[in-house]
Amino acid sequence: MGAPNLRHDPSSRYAAFVVPEDRLLPAVCPQCGAAGSVPVPVPTDHPERRLHVHLCDLCAGHAARRATLRFAWFTAVVVVCMSMASAMTFIWGERGRLIQFVVLALIALLLGQVAHARSNAAVLRLKLSWARLRPDLPQQPLLLSASPWLNQALIRLEFAQVAPGDRGVARHALTTSAWARLGPFVPALLSGAWWLALEGFSRASIYVVNMGPGPVVLLVDDRHQGTVAATRFEQPNLGYRHELLAGARSVRLLSSAGEAVYSNEQRLLPGQTLLIARLLPESCVWEERLDYEHPGSPSSWSVLARSSQVVLLDQMVDAWFTPLGDGSDQPPQSLTPGAETAPGTRVAVRLLPCPPP
Ligand SMILES: [Zn+2]
Description:
The protein is α+β, with helices and mostly antiparallel strands. The chain has two domains: about 10-195, no CATH class; about 205-325 and about 335-355, no CATH class. The protein has nine helices and 17 strands. α4 packs antiparallel against α5.
C-alpha cells in the first residue's frame, strides 16, 4: 500500500494525463494500488473511445456491490426519514409546523450525507474527458484521475501530465457530477415532499352539531378552533365543521361556563369525519341515502345518533343537513336497516325527529 500521504493531499491527488489512442493504462488497481486483473471501462462522455483500468479482485467485488450498497443505504435513509415525517404529522398534527419541518430537514440532510459518503466509498473516481487545455490547443482525450496509485504509475510510465495549474479540470470533473452534488439532498427532498403531501392530503374533519343549551367551544389539541352556536332546526349551515390533519387528536367541547361537554382522545384516519352531536331528546341525526341512478326510488334511512352521541363516519357525505330529493321524503316510522353503500348512491346527514320507540 503506497502513497498514503498523497491520498490526503488534494493538490497532488487530482491529476490529468494525455492518453494517446495507441496506449493502454497500466494494470494497477486505482482503488488500492495492488496488481489489477479485472478490466473495467473508464466512465466517459464519448462512447467511441474506450479505455480500461484494471481493478484487483477485492476492489472488483466491492465495485460490483456498489450499486446494491448505494441502493441499500439510500433506501434505508429515505425510509427512516419518511417514517419520521409520517410520525411527526400524526403525533404533532398542526402544532409547531415550522419546527417539525426544520427538524425533519436537518436530520434528513445529516443522514443523506452519511449515506452518500458510505455508498461512494467504492466509486471509481476516474473519467475520460475531452478538454481543451489552452485556447490555442485542439481538444484532447484526457484521463482525469483521483487515484494516487494510478497517478504514480502513469508518471512512472511517462504519460504526459497536464501542468499542475490545470489540475482544477480534473478536480472539477470528478467532484461535480450531478449525483455528487445532489445525492446527499435526496432523502431531505423526498421526505420533505412526503411531509408536505401528508399535510395537504391526509385530512379528516370534525363536525359539531349543537342544539344547546348555549353555545359550545371546540378545542382540538387544546387550541381554540371555533364557537358553535345552538340551533334547533335543520338548515344547511347547521353546526360547525373543522378540517384538520388526520392522526391522534385530543378533542374537547366546552360550554360557555367552561365545563367540558365532551372530552376524548380520538384517532382520526384520513377521510374520516367525527360527528359530535349534542341533541334534544326528541331529535336524531339520520343518514339519508338516495339511489340517483333510479329516479323516483325513495330514500333509505338509518339513525346515526340519538340525544348526545359521537359517531365516526368513514364514508364521504355529499350533503350536510340538506334533503337529497325534493324534500317530500320523510324518515320511516319504524327503523329499517341501512342501505348498502353502492356507486350511484348519494349520502346526506339530516337532523330530524327520532323514530317512535
Ligand atoms: Zn484494489
